């Protein structure tokens, strides 16, 4: 019956679009359709038999060690992910925080069934040399319309790692151009770089933070320090790593000053080592590393230190960006006019990329370049996602739901002090610590079998990453089930 | 009128799909539709006024130094790219060799307007943990169905650079596991890697070739040696770089043995340096570096050297793969049963990724991992592209067109010995050298204004990269216009 509903939805979108496709005809005003299930519904334990069977099949082609279960995305909608065994789960992990407005949002189905968009789906251009006519317009109404303070320029990329890799390159290029007094590179620069040698390939570094995660390609990985398994066996760079504040909850900030001093010391030390710090990269909230927060003062201080030492300041919003903190960008909570030189994004923005100040645009073409440079079909979906966020006031919803979620977590934490601690969060970007990893595993598995999909982060945290359409009643639904689970495991 | 044609095409696909969407109804047998223009048609010089206007607009958001012109992808079809000023060009560059079966192929329009595929377009999963039900099936009928000899396993990624970065990681992990005797990593391994230090982050290297191109992220860039502008100012690794054979045309192979000896010497030298070579990476034809070919004997010898020294052998088919040489993979021309340990791809395959032998699968989950791990919507298009290649016998067409193209280039080279030399190619993957870069620029610009879109590579080559639907009559159409251009510039 769910499927018939979906089919009707498809048919509806199609009918609408047969009209939409008539020349000169504008899209009918969108209506906010409620498109969600009324709660979890579990038929088997998870993974169920069909998932087990498909995992076996996929096992002949790929490593399946990380597979949770197989999904029926046609049947999934809103906050609910349906699996291939007919289990329907309230999704508070959303594909590692990458689903902005839930599954099968009617406005997205309508958009993608519009024949006027077919060409964008079948003709992927090399955006850096042959963009489509609507590229500037789509960028303007999507990414540029939510650009961070002080930034008017944006470069799209295909994924989060490519976004950070290219942001690092932009910082290295910017730094060396300063060193050269913006003169042309020397003959020695040009000949030495071809064979990976300095001065053409200089000994520059990016300063990153212990517990940070910025991706898994070799440049990004050199700034990632969350888990050994991500880094083991991959050659890396000798780059400085600063401690990230470890705050106590409720919030104290005594660690702040020390952390800032250490950053400054490292910048000086690496300059003396002959590996100057071209840029500092940091997440507004360390996500993968365990939902570690720091105070706005810490970030403001850090930004000043970077400026003082001539280092670029790169804020990685791949997981925090897109509205999940109640603002489009988590760094907006710092209340700064000049928060960063570069802000990278992916996940909920559906395309990777990075914003940057004018001075971080490469001086020559083909220095920041690849074949695809992103994907117009993702920009297309993103601009409709942003319309939905505005139309449905989703940032306010997130703030409201986030408050309800935090209050609930505080209550549970008071109720189960032996099991829960350090509840923390901004918007719905929340987390709580579990007494130990073993208990965390049991909680996550029990929750899944009761129809609640959650993810872990760090060594013993559970992270909450609902979509922006996660309303207060979803919060209460979750809290009730979560309470039962904790009572049962107590 | 072109647009009305397109609209009719859309309407047709849609009507068909209203049937297709009926439950249980199978797709009607596809018919091979000819869907192409009859020749170039130029209204303005390129870029025309509308392109200039849009370039100015985009200039407020991005570096536009590499923009050729803006395209009307709705109006483009088959081998013809239409720009926003109504110019229609025969496209022999195909978005840097990334368009497999031309623009707006009717079977792809039909596929993407099928409502049953909507969910794949609006719900992008985290493939590594929550794949869709049809994922094993789609992989099997697409990538696995064209797997290189000896390889049954494939990992999808979002772009070419991510594919090579992860292929390198797979080789490093494989190499270190051998060194550990496949025992668990030591405590020292796990603690040292978090801070980028050995033994956890070992001093291993990848051997690459002068003139090679493998991408622009920091790991890939350390193996790229085609042009200084790609590498300038980006820190790199001290990895060995071997000379690539520089063949004379018509083909002699006297350089072969030396090149192979140097590779062996470098492997020994870097082992002595304490930076052992975990893998050797090479393109079957160096594309970006200037369409440099090497003999099958050279590659066979190289593969043996890698095996002898315990190094992985990675063949990068990002540009050569997908049928453009008349075989699905260029390395098939070597006639080897065990051509490689890893084969990476992107571009014409529409998704990035790499095939690998079983032993190159990471021993643990989350070692080769990221949020998206590719994109099912690209696998969907790819499997239809492969159906079209089979249905329309496009590999045979490529072989036929390639012969005609090479014969034509040989004739022109004989006719204009002062301007053209070193005509070379396999299938339609062809190139010719121009006397100097200045003349090359003039040829490329004049050709574009006459409705022929070509690309350069290396320091003075023109590379031919038509789609697989580039037929013999397209070759002759091109040769006639090219002949006029050369006569005019002579």
UniProtKB/TrEMBL annotation, chains A, B:
Q: What is its EC number?
A: 2.6.1.19, 2.6.1.22
Keywords, comma-separated and alphabetical = Aminotransferase, Neurotransmitter degradation, Pyridoxal phosphate, Transferase
Any single GO BP term? gamma-aminobutyric acid catabolic process
GO MF annotation list: (S)-3-amino-2-methylpropionate transaminase activity; 4-aminobutyrate:2-oxoglutarate transaminase activity; pyridoxal phosphate binding
Tell me which cofactor or cofactors this protein depends on.
pyridoxal 5'-phosphate
* Known function: Catalyzes the conversion of gamma-aminobutyrate and L-beta-aminoisobutyrate to succinate semialdehyde and methylmalonate semialdehyde, respectively. Can also convert delta-aminovalerate and beta-alanine.
The record's subunit annotation is:
Homodimer; disulfide-linked.
Q: What is this protein called?
A: 4-aminobutyrate aminotransferase, mitochondrial
The organism is Pogonophryne albipinna
């Amino acid at each position: 019956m769910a499927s018939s509903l979906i089919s009707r939805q498809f048919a509806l979108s199609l009918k609408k679009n047969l009209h939409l496709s008539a020349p000169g005809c504008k899209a009918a005003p969108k209506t906010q359709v409620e498109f969600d299930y009324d709660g979890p519904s579990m038929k088997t334990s998870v993974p169920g038999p069909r998932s087990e069977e498909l995992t076996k099949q996929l096992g002949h082609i790929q490593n399946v060690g990380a597979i949770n279960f197989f999904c029926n995305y046609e049947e999934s909608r809103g906050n609910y992910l349906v699996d291939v065994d007919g289990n329907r789960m309230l999704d508070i992990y959303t594909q590692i925080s990458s689903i902005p407005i839930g599954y099968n949002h009617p406005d997205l189905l309508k958009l993608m069934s519009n024949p006027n968009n077919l060409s964008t789906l079948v003709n992927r251009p090399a955006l850096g040399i042959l963009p489509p006519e609507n590229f500037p317009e789509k960028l303007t109404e999507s990414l540029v319309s939510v650009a961070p303070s002080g930034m008017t320029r944006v470069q799209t990329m295909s994924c989060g790692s490519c976004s950070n890799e290219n942001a690092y390159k932009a910082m290295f290029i910017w730094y060396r151009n300063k060193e050269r007094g913006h003169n042309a590179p020397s003959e020695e620069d040009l000949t030495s770089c071809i064979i990976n040698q300095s001065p053409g390939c200089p000994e520059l570094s990016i300063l990153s933070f212990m517990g940070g995660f910025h991706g898994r390609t070799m440049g990004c990985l050199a700034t990632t320090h969350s888990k050994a398994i991500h880094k083991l066996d991959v050659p890396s760079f000798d780059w400085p790593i600063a401690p990230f504040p470890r705050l106590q909850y409720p919030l104290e900030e005594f660690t702040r000053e020390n952390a800032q001093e250490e950053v400054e010391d490292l910048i000086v030390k690496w300059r003396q080592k002959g590996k100057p710090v071209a840029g500092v990269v940091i997440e507004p909230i360390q996500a993968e590393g365990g939902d570690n927060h720091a105070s706005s003062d810490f970030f403001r201080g850090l930004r000043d230190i970077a400026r003082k030492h001539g280092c670029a300041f790169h804020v990685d919003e791949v997981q925090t960006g897109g509205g999940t903190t109640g603002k489009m960008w988590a760094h907006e909570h710092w209340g700064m006019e000049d928060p960063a030189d570069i802000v990278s994004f992916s996940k909920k923005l559906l395309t990777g990329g990075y914003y940057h100040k004018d001075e971080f645009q490469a001086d020559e073409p083909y220095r920041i370049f690849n074949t695809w440079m992103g994907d117009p079909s993702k920009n297309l979906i993103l601009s409709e996602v942003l319309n939905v966020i505005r139309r449905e006031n989703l940032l306010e919803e997130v703030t409201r739901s986030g408050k309800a979620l935090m209050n609930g977590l505080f209550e549970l934490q008071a109720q189960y002090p032996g099991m829960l601690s350090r509840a923390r969060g901004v918007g719905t970007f929340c987390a709580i610590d579990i007494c130990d990893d073993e208990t965390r595993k049991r909680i996550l598995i029990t929750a899944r079998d009761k129809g609640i999909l959650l993810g872990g982060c760090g060594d013993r945290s559970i992270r909450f990453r609902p979509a922006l359409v996660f309303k207060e009643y979803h919060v209460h639904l979750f809290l009730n089930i979560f309470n039962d689970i904790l009572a049962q495991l107590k």
